[in-house]
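Dear all,

This email documents one entry for the complex benchmark we are building for the journal club exercise. For each entry we list the sequence lines for every component of the assembly. Then comes the predicted three-dimensional structure of the complex as a token string, followed by one or two observations. Please use this as the template for your own entries, and keep the labels exactly as they appear.
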Amino acid sequence: MTDMKTKASASPVPTKVAQERRSMRRLAPIAAVLAGGVVILILSYTLEPFRNYQLATVGAYFCVTAGLTVLTGLNGQLSLGHGALMATGAYSFALAQNKWLSLPLSFVVAIAVTTLAGAVIGLAAARLRGPYLAGLTLAVAIVVPSVTSTFDETFNSDQGLSVVLDPPPGTIPMERWQAWLAWTGALLTVLLLAFLVRGAFGRRLRAVRDDETAAKLAGVNIARTQVLAFVVSAVCAGLSGALFAVLAQSVSPGAFPLTLSLFLVMAIVIGGLGSLFGALLGAILLVALPTFAQSVAEQTGSHRLEGNLALVVFGVVLIVVMLAAPGGLASIRFTFIRRFRRER
Amino acid sequence: MATGELNLHHIGVRFGGLVALDDVSLRVAPGKVVGVIGPNGAGKTTLFNVISGFVTPSDGSLTLDGKPWRPRPHRLSGLGIARTLQGVGQFGGMTVLENVMVGVRGRRAEAEAFAALDRCGVAQYAAVRPGTLPYAIRKRVELARALASKPRILMLDEPAGGLDTDEIRWLGDLIRGELIKDSGTTVLLVEHHMDLVMSVCDEILVLDFGKPIALGTPGEISTNERVTEAYLGAPA
């Protein structure tokens, strides 16, 4: 034992260099989130209301894609049911908001309910692998929206519920207020996730993904890690759903179809699996591509294209990105920097 | 923590009609190096799987520090037991340093993981992903991961497989030197490489088709007729 200690202090890396590097790494997420907050604040004052609304939508999507990329990219659990978890969060938020009319309380209720839902699905998911897990979560994505028509007295079937919101404080326009709310949620989520995945929990997540036998021997409780990962990402999805309820000021099953769940997975794959920055890129694409598709469809004047072009565009982008950068958009940055360094 | 005395009492394992282990008893005394040898399919790895909880024995029982014990894989490292895997089994999506850090608890995880890599002579690969490294280096990383948790019982499953003569000598020195003399670690070794087994072990258990056929010091084992027979076939 004494031998180990002398060796540790004699070897160069774990001393000063490593400590500096470690504190840098620890501060990096805070710096990124602060910078992000400043950018959002500036954008929210300069953008016109509709663009502000889109900015808010990116923020709301960012919550769910960040959670999903941690689950799928770092822990290796593929979920095709995160749209349903968003719906759970949205409906919980709507019911709480219409009852008590308190924004913070409604967010807490939405998060609490999705934590519970995530734990239940996560417990089942921890016993399943690969396509079976995808199948289970797919079933959740299909079942949850139809719950609304089964219990239509509470959820008001396909019509959905409208969400009563207090007017924003002061003279802040609604869209700017929504952007602030959405991005406060998104930045807090990402900050927490960044700290989680950079520590021992993140190492355990990836260990379970890469080799379960070796992870067990390293003392990792596989099932507990998987359930925790699922709960964490479910909470992110629930918060995202609640934010969508704030944005639309209504909730309906039509807002959380199966295609939403699939789009979320596509977004994190295009952005770069396991990367929080990639999750941001994915969230931006989720808003930008349909808008782009719609404007193209309007210009060509074809009504048939309008609903379907977004799917085509997403598919084409997925294929192009996977051919050009199999690690997703977030990986391009690194290869570029590496090339730059080598040339110097 | 106690020094780690492991006892196997009449262990039997059946996979359907196949008897993988039959009435195997073994006492692994603290601080000793105990080797398990035998021809292919003799049940060596199955025995390791029983001790690490991947296989539940059909008969018999285990004790750890004199107490009845039912091993569970993810609890081993908490009990101070580490095991390496035959097929290397590394986390491909993580750096070598992170690989080792998974098994280390506490605030000094990084320093301790690095120290373990240094001890195994692979500290320079800390920032590399294991998939890009040659097999022999990965074996050392695997060993570093097991050592980083500072185990009192270390189970090595064919650590010399794929290594050349110099590397095997290094491994033997490591087991006989720092590991045993300095920290009193108990070592359980499954190995095909006879020179290594004979030079590092205090005691050797020989299995053949799941049955224990001999137990003794290297000197006794190398002159045992049944062992020669099991390895080379019936005597002329």
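Observations: The longest strand of chain A covers residues 161-162. Residues 16-46 of chain A form the longest helix (31 residues).
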